[in-house]
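Could you help me review a protein record that somebody else here produced? What it holds is a sequence and that sequence's fold in token form. I have pasted the whole thing underneath without changing anything:
=====
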Amino acid sequence: MPDIFGVIADATRRDILQVLLERFKRDAEISVSEIVGQLEISQPTVSKHLKVLREAELVTVREEGQHRYYSLNPEPLEMIEDFVIPFLSAGFDTEVTVEYLSESGERVAGPGAQDAFADLGEEVLPEEAAAAAERIGRAAARAENRVKELVARFRLRD
């Protein structure tokens, strides 16, 4: 497989990928002639770049008679994402602060501080619910990190 960074280094191929991304968002394919029309570049040039994108498995092609219809395959771009994300998120503070509130909005001790409620004769959360809350908290932390990464990505575009 060709070096994915080298493949996307070419501006024309990035333009083609942008066109394919717009179609991908609508779950649609695009013909070579439509790409030529949108980018206003020659058909041989588009075909040459589509061949490189095909070899890198960034696009799939469906043939129908003499026509070829292309679709974006974003999976190989995950390698780039995996490489770039640590750089994009390097300056972010990823600490998560959690407060537990009662139904009336008063701050209460969290699941790890159940002893504080021992004199009340009740648990803050049953063990099963505490385990579920911990899993939800971890998922929320992962989601927060993902959002920060996406925000950083958009900031770089500005």
Remarks:
- The helical segments are 4-8, 11-25, 32-39, 43-55, 77-88, 127-157.
- Residues 127-157 form the longest helix (31 residues).
- Strands lie at 30-31, 59-64, 67-72, 100-101, 107-108.
- The CA atoms of residues 58 and 73 lie 5 Å apart.
